[in-house]
Amino acid sequence: MTTVRENLKVTPKYREISHLLRRAGFGATPGEMDRYIEMDYSEVVDELLNAPGTSTMPDDVIFRMFPEYHASLGVDACANWAYRMVSTDSPLEEKITLFWHGIFATGNDKLNNPLVLLNQIDTFRRNGMGRFDDILLDLSRDPAMLIWLDNQTNHKDSINENYGREILELFSMGVGNYTEDDIKECARAFTGWSVKNAEYMALMGQKDSIWPYSRISWHYEYRQNDHDDTEKTFLGEKGKFDGEDIIEIICRQESTARFISRHLYNFFVEDEVQVPSWQDVPPKNPKAIGILTDAYFEHGHDLKKVLKVLFESDFFKESEYKKVKGPAEMVINVLRLSGGFEEPTLSMIQAVEEAGYMGQLLFYPPSVEGWHTGQEWITSGSVLDRVNFSSARLTDLSSPGIRDILNRIGNRCGTNAKPEYVIQNFLELMGIIEISDATFDLLMEVCDAKDSTVDTTAVSFDVTASNILRVIGASKEFHLV
Amino acid sequence: MKTKYLKTIGIKTNQPVGRGFLFPYDVTFDSSGMIYALNRGRISQGLGTRIQIFDYDEEWYGEFGEGRGTGPLNFLIPVATAFNSKDELFVTDEGSGEVKVFNQKGLPLYQVGGGSGPWSCDLKGPSGIAFDSNDNLYITERSASRLTKIDGDGNVIFRVGEPGDGELQFNMPWGVVTDGKGYVYVADWRNDRIQKLDPDGNFVTSFGQSGNSEGQFNRPSSVAVDSQGNMYVTDWGNERVQVLNSEGRFLHVVEGQATLSKWAEQWLEVNQDEYSARRSSNLSILDLPAHLQTPYQVGSQTEHLFWGPVSAKIDACDRLFITEHSRARIQVFDISGNSD
Fold it and tell me: Do A217 and B285 touch (CB under 8 A)?
């Protein structure tokens, strides 16, 4: 049995805020924690929910040096998003974008047009904490989604049910809450929702054509002549419904509120079973889902307010380390800790690829269902990739973020520190609150304090520090959130 | 005043050899009028980084360069090109901190930056490059925010500039050009202006400020000057070219009006399914949703307009060549009608 010890260096307030920043962001650097710890927990929540979206790495500088970040292959363009995740001072904005990318999973392997996926990501960034009705409406007009689910072939005299099915099954209500007839009626309502030059654009995507002058980006087009404006019966209601009416009906369903609440719980609070099992397996915390569902209706489907309820709840505060870090989350966490992205670099492309080796190549979900999460992130192969990646980055003592951690250790611990104290400080600065006895013992071993104290200001301490960071990066605790 | 569209040259390619472009960044012309295009390629994979040679009629003559690397024929982040009067081709490389020099056939001759002796001055992110009529070389340095002038024997004549937004201060300068009187024009990229210097490196004046109105710029990357002193500025972030007179007064905007190049026509002829779908499409779309009405998005959605206009160069026949890195092509304009 694994016994766990708390990091005695950490105050309850530090613990709560640190947890919040791991879940609502990608973990805080020591410098960020210096600022946040001066605030009340609720002030931090409000800032995360309302911080304006600014990024410390401007797009123009990235594009000047590496234009492929916006207009080349999917992985390159995706690295543009990764730059934002690493450098943003509005981490929740990017985290909620990652949340929606996992649910409204759209793949470049079919679209072959990364810029339209970047535009979709931007839509999630812009409206991802808005009213769910607006999010679904944006999604239904998103050209990447329309081509991904073939809605350009959904005609009034020959419907294609693909989007009509998925908006109900995967994007809003979940299996078991509608009928096959509802799917057909839903599809009819979305006839005519298409993309400008859809035939040519879909053909270019299908052939992965870059000719003659690079890919052309897409935008939504409503084709009135191809829209079925006759009466429909949907979820027991009758009318000449358009897509907008369908979304309005969907969003006031109890099942929608519960489905979205469970997604929020799964992403921000605690790993649930995989989505296809939700029909059969009840939520881990039905009471929490009830609280979020009530908040959804009480606040008019406004997800920002639902998130506020979530982050301030006891069930959230008590959920430390109940989740496995997703690969993208893990990579961004490590990159934010290590720093070094003040100048554009191609290594962001490699970092995105690393997340892919760990099982989550952004822009390339395995299917329309998105990625399976939680413990399914962990395989024998992905663990090796995780450990190799985190070790390589965290033990690069020349990177500014790691250098900052070592300077802080030196300032705090000085020339004559007990090894336990040194380790506790490392763990705090790395955002780890609890650690197993086995890992702690290993850290003590690598601390190599034969004479019982450590001089953390000595040049030779770099070797010890490197070993400590390597063990922390490889520890189970570092891969939980 | 007019800038008259003539033709489009190029086609996109993802191949490491052969005609076609992948992120072209600049063109220049040798004494015979042959066009040399700097194809940056996909740097992350070292794919297709090379110099390509062709003429105005799109006849293809060859290429040189061996992709990403530090060898004599490799590049890291190549940015701009220029010929001196001896038909030696200079290629700046922000990544390696060097300017490599080749003959017309691509044989490496020597390099500027690094080493010792003549041509050995330290360069920090060499970006734009130009010669004056006396074969003096001007190089902008992105990382140092300065302009360096070197004589034809490789000796540094002066270095001016430091980071900032005052006179003779730069913020990541990019393109540079000289006019017939020896004045120097620097695209002061992140200060959204063009600075004009005299041949001794003294500040003369500056044109433009941040914005998207007439005479305002959003990250100007390059400037060309015609025989009348008119300036053609690639207003990179606004996806347009602005034409100013010699005093800096706004004359007109060029937005691009690309047509199919010879290479593009030939490609479509053998890909009839795409040609057919293309003919039934309207690629000159201007009715975009509100959130897509930015210059960048408009450029990405409308094929004939500029998207990534990065370099402006004028050849001996008064033709303006605008290189677009994101559309992988060059739009050519007749500027002989532009006079005060």
Answer: no
CA A139 to chain centre: 17
Question: Burial code of A431-469, b = ≥16 C-beta within 10 A, e = fewer?
Answer: bbbebeeebbebbeebbebeeebbbbbeeebeebbbbbb
Task: Name every residue whose Cβ is closer than 8 Å to that of residue A455 and which is 6 or more positions away in sequence.
Answer: A414, A415, A416, A417, A461
For chain A, what is the domain count?
1
Locate B285 and state its tokens. 């779309």
CA A46 from centre of chain: 19
CB count within 10 Å of CB A225 equals 7
Q: Please tell me the distance from the alpha carbon of residue A221 to that of residue A143, in angstroms, as a whole number.
A: 9
Nearest CA in chain A to B266: A212
Q: Mutate which of A62, A134, A211, A354 to disrupt the B interface (most B C-beta within 10 Å)?
A: A211
Measured CA to CA, the distance from residue B94 to residue B115 in angstroms comes to 17
Task: Give yes or no for a contact between B118 and B133, defined as CB atoms under 8 angstroms apart.
Answer: no
Q: How far is C-alpha A209 from the geometric centre of its chain's CA atoms?
A: 30
Confidence check: pLDDT of B1 > 70: no
Mutate to test the interface with A, among B19, B23, B44 (most CBs of A within 10 A): B44
Least confident of A187-191, A250-254, A414-418: A414-418
d(CA B135, CA B83): 9
- Kindly state whether residue A196 falls inside one of the protein's structural domains: yes
- How are beta strands B50-54 and A193-195 bridged, if at all? unpaired
Q: In B, which residues are within 8 Å of A115 by CB distance?
A: 300
For residue A182, is it within any domain?
Answer: yes
The whole-model pTM stands at: 0.95
The ipTM (two decimal places) reads 0.95
Residue B206, beta-bridge partner list: B195
Residue A181's domain comprises: 94-317
* Contact by Cβ (8 Å): A59, A53: no
Best of A59, A61, A64, A193 to mutate (most B CBs within 10 Å, chain B): A64
Which residue in the block uniquely carries the two structure tokens 């419907």?
Answer: A159
Q: What distance in Å separates the CA atoms of residue B237 and residue B214, rounded to the nearest whole number?
A: 14
Q: Flag whether A9 is in a domain.
A: no
Segment among A54-58, A106-110, A233-237, A300-304 with least mean pLDDT? A54-58
Question: Could you report the per-residue pLDDT of A405-414, keeping only the tens digit for each?
Answer: 999 999 999 9
Find chain B residues with C-beta within 8 A of A222's C-beta: none
Q: How much of chain A is in helix, strand and coil states, percent to nearest 5?
A: 60, 5, 35
- Cα–Cα distance between A469 and A447 in angstroms, integer? 11
CA distance A356 to chain B (A): 17
Please list every residue in chain A whose beta carbon sits closer than 8 Å to the beta carbon of residue B301: 216-219
B21 touches chain A (CB under 8 A): no
Please, which residues have CB within 8 angstroms of residue A451's CB and are 6 or more apart in sequence? none
Closest to B219 measured CA to CA, from A60, A59, A344, A65? A60
The Cα B307–Cα A341 span in angstroms is 27
| Whole-Å CA distances, A365 to A107, A360, A373, A466, B42 | 6, 7, 12, 35, 24
Cis peptide before A212 (omega within 30 of 0): yes
pLDDT digits (tens, 9 = 90+) for A331-380: 999 999 999 888 888 889 999 999 999 999 999 999 999 999 999 999 99
Task: Give domain status of residue A59, yes or no.
Answer: no
Which tokens belong to B257? 């009006």
Using an 8 Å Cβ cutoff, are A3 and A439 in contact? no
Q: Are B28 and B331 in contact (CB under 8 A)?
A: no
pLDDT tens per residue, range A26-40: 999 999 999 999 999
- Burial code (b: 16+ CB inside 10 Å, e: under 16) for A310-322 equals bbebebbbebbbe
